[in-house]
Amino acid sequence: MLAGVSVQPRREEEVLLSSVGSSPLRLATKKMIVLTIFVVVCCQLSATKAAIFSEKGIEGTNTNEVEAINFLRQYDGEASTMCNRFMEASWNFNTNVTDFNRRFMLRRQLEWTRFHRLKWTEATTFAWKNFTTPTVRRMFSFLTVLGKAALPENELRELTTLIEEMKTTYSTAKICRYDATRNRLPDGDYDYYADLEISGDNEVLCAPTLSLEPHLTQIMSTSRNPDELRYVWRAWRDAAGKPLREKYIRFVELTNKAALLNGFDDAGEYWRSDYETNSFAEDLEALWDTLRPLYQQLHAYVRSKLRTVYGEENVPVRGPIPAHLLGNMWAQTWTHVLDITIPYTGPATVDVTNTLRQLGYQPVTMFRLAEEFFTSLGLDSMPTTFWQKSLFVKPNDREVVCHASAWDFCNGFDYRIKQCAQVTMEDLITAHHEMGHIQYDIQYRNQPFIFRDGANPGFHEAVGDVLALSASTPRHLQTVGLLSNVDDSYETDINFLFNMALDKIAFLPFGYLVDKWRWEIFSGDISTSEMNSRWWELRNSIQGVSSPVPRDEEDFDAGAKFHVPANVPYVRYFVSFIIQFQFHSELCKAAGHTGPLHHCDIYRSQEAGRLLKNVLSLGKSRPWTDALSVLTNGRTRKLDAGPILEYFGPLLSWLESQNKGEFIGWDQSEAIVVQQVGTTNASIVTGVVLGFVALVLLVSLIVYAVTRCKRTGKSFNAAT
Questions:
Q1: What kind and span of H or E run contains 474?
Q2: Residue 160's closest CA among 222, 207, 220, 114?
Q3: What is the pTM of this model?
Q4: What is the rounded average pLDDT for all residues in the chain?
Q5: Which residues carry out catalysis?
Q6: Can you tell me the distance from the alpha carbon of 351 to that of 482, in angstroms, rounded to the nearest whole number?
Q7: Burial of 316 (C-beta count, 10 Å sphere; 0-12/13-18/19+)
Q8: Neighbours of 361 (CB within 10 A)
Q9: Alpha-carbon distances, residue 210 vs 334, 350, 421, 426, 438 (angstroms)
Q10: Burial readout 263-293 (b: 16 or more C-beta within 10 A, e: otherwise)
C-alpha cells in the first residue's frame, strides 16, 4: 500500500553524520576526514561536468576552491546541530498537537531557515561552476538554491505559518457520526448536506467526534452502505478540505514567489528540478500511456463487480466509478473492496490479519518482524533509540498527526517512525515501508550531509515498498509463520496478483494526477477560481473516478488529502511504483530467483542485500540515473515500465478474458452524482429571509405607484 513519507528537511537544509559518544573535537575531525576522502574519491569517479551536477544555483567571483572545501566542512558540523534542533521540535508537535508545540516548532524552523540563508549567502560568493572537483560543484549546485528561505522574513514566516495551520486543520478535523434517522428529505432520502448546520433554536445538530484515523478509515474500508459511505466521504471534505481553500490560494502565491527568487519559473518547475532532467513531465506522461491499458482493464473488472453489489443505480455500466465505493477515502488504492471483487472465492486470500491477532502480535512486534527482514539481507538493525523513541500506537491522551512517517534526526544514530498502527496485514506492510525509509537513511549516513537523501524523491519511497513485494508473497508469509498450506494453484496466483493490483495498479493514476493538478495551479494554467472543477476533471479523465455528490468552487477537495496541505510533492509515489519493480527485478536476479517475478522472495539473500546496499549508500551523491545504472549493472539509466508489466502479465491476460463484453474505459458523461434535493435548515432560513425582503420591496413599489398616481390624477386602469 501507499504509506507515509520520509520526514527530513530539504537537502540544502540537512546535515552530516554524528557519532554516539564522540567528543565535539573528535566528531569535527571525523567529519573533515570523511568529507575530504569523499571529495577525492568522487572526483576520481566522475567523468564529465554534465554528468555530476545541475547548472541551477547562483555563483559569485571567489575562485579559491580550497577555501570553498573548508566552507563545506564547517557547514557540515553546524548544519547537523541546527537540523537536529528543528527535527526534535517538529517531532514534538507531530506527536502532541498543541499551540505551544506548534509555536515552538515554528520558532525552530525559522532559526533553521535563517541559518540556511546565511550559509547560502556565503556559498554564493564562490565561482563554483568552474571548480575542478565535480563533487564540490555538485554540492554547491544544491547549496546555492535557497528554496522558500529566499522569501523576505515576514513572508517566510507567513508561509511557514500557513502550512502548519493547514496541517493542523487537516489533522484535527472531525465529523459527526452517520445517522440516517435524522434530516430526512420529503422523498425519504438522507440529506447529506444538513448534519453540521444550525437548527432553528441555534443548537448544533451533532457533536463531531470521528477523526480520520482510525474511525473514518475503518468506515470507508468496511461499510457496504452506500448512503453511509457517501455521507462520510462528503463530511470529511467539508471538515478537512473546504476550510483550507483561501489559505491554499495564498500558499500558492508565496510558494511561487520563492521559486521565482530561486531562478525557476514557478514552484512546479522547482519541484521537478529534484529529478535533474528537463523532460521529466513528458517522461511521466509516456510511462502512464504505457501503463494505462492495464489500469483500464482493472477498472472495468472492478466496476462490474461493484455494480453487482450496489446496482446500476449506484455504479454505472460505462461511466466512472463513484469515489466513495472503492474502500478508501481518496479512492487511491482499492484493497478494501477485495472481499466483494475477488476473482475466485474458493482459494484462501493472502490476508494474515486474523493470524497476527491470534498469535498475539502487537504493533511493536510487527516492526520487529519488519526489522528481521532487513537484517536477513545483511542490512543494519534499528538502533536502540529507534525502539525507545518511536511512536507505534495512537495515544489516547492527545492529538497526533497520524499519517505514517519515518524520521531522520540528522545525527547518524537517532531514527524514528511515527505510525498509528493497528494489528492488520496492511499496517504490517506499512511497517516494512517505513522501516525501508530508515534503512535508506542509515545506509547513506556516511555521506556528506548535502548528499544524505534519496537519489531522487521516488527512490526513498521505493526502497520500503520493494521489500514489501517480497514480504507480502504467500511463500514469505509461510516462512515467517503467518500462513500455512500455501496453495500454488492458478486461482490462488490470480487472487494474489489481483490483490496486489488493487494496491499498485489502482494507485498509478492518482499518483500521477495530484502533482499534475498542482503544477497547473503553480504555472497559472488553471486559475484559483477553477481549482476544484479542474481537480475533478483530472480525477474523471485520468482515473475514471467521479464525485458521488455535487461539488463546486466553494469546495476544496484536493485539500482533504494530507500531502496537499502539508506541501509534500506527490509524484514521487508514482515514480516509486515504477522504480520498486525495477529494483525488485534486479534484486531477484541477484538472489538467483527463477520463475515468475511475482513469486520472488529475496528474504535471506545476502547477494540481494549487497546490491541494495551499494545503491542505497550512494545517497544523492550521484544523479539517480547513475544509481539505476549501478542497480542494473549498466543495462539502463531510465525509468522503465517493463518490470511492472512483467509482474502483472498473468493478471492482465486474465482480466482481458473476463472483461469480454465490458466497456473498457469510461464515459465521463455517465457519472452517477446524487443531486441535492429538498432544502436544509439553513437554506429554509435563507429562503424565508429572501422572501421577506422581496415582499417588502414589492409593497414599497405598490405604495410608491399608488402615491404617484394620486398626484397625477391617473388610475391603474388609465395607464394607456
A1: helix 474-479
A2: 114
A3: 0.83
A4: 86
A5: 403-404, 433-434, 437, 461, 563, 573
A6: 9
A7: buried
A8: 19
A9: 22, 30, 17, 21, 31
A10: bbebbbbbbbbbbbbeebbebbeebbeebbe
